[in-house]
Amino acid sequence: EGIRYGCEQGLYGWNVTDCKICFKYGLYYSPVSTPADFRMLTPIVLEQAFRKAGTELLEPYLSFKVYAPQEYLSRAYNDAPKYCANIVNTQLKNNEVIIIGEIPARCIQDYRNDLTFFTNGLSVCLAELKGYQVTTGEPVCQTRRLNSRIDKVRYMFNKIT
């Protein structure tokens, strides 16, 4: 239970995946230790282990195709880097341009909105999950779910260390 809770929150509030966890040592003092003590302490110990292990924060990347009239090719192509997108290929068919690329999932909606605005609604942007890449720069944190008992233990644990 404590492992599941710790992995659901991770270091930055995101779910931890693709890891194997094995506890090698635990101290149990019969008169005062309870199973609840271990459940409460496990997420905090996991957090410290994740810090020491040097975990990586991954973000979802999408592959996208933009269909737009040819007269908007320059703007659509040149605006892509503003949204952290990489253009892989462009094709011309009749009076339409097809731009193929990759973009972080966090940026796709802004790029779509921009395309719709400057093409007057004449563009279509299709996207699907391509995979995950390590984030660059400052990690994006997600607010942790509150658990007052664990937060009290975390506070006391951080005061000691």
UniProtKB/TrEMBL annotation:
Report the domain of life of the source organism: Bacteria
Q: Which Gene Ontology MF annotations are present? A: GTP binding; GTPase activity; translation elongation factor activity
Name the Pfam families on file. Answer: EFG_C, EFG_IV
Against SUPFAM superfamilies, the record matches this protein to: EF-G C-terminal domain-like, Ribosomal protein S5 domain 2-like
Residues annotated as domain Elongation factor EFG: 56-139
Q: Cross-referenced InterPro entries, in alphabetical order? A: EFG_III/V, EFG_V-like, Ribosomal_Su5_D2-typ_SF, Ribsml_uS5_D2-typ_fold_subgr, Tet_C, Transl_elong_EFG/EF2_IV
Q: Which residues form the Translation elongation factor EFG/EF2 domain?
A: 1-53
The record's keywords, sorted A to Z, are: Elongation factor, GTP-binding, Nucleotide-binding, Protein biosynthesis
State the name under which the record lists this protein.
Answer: Elongation factor G
Organism this protein belongs to: Staphylococcus pseudintermedius
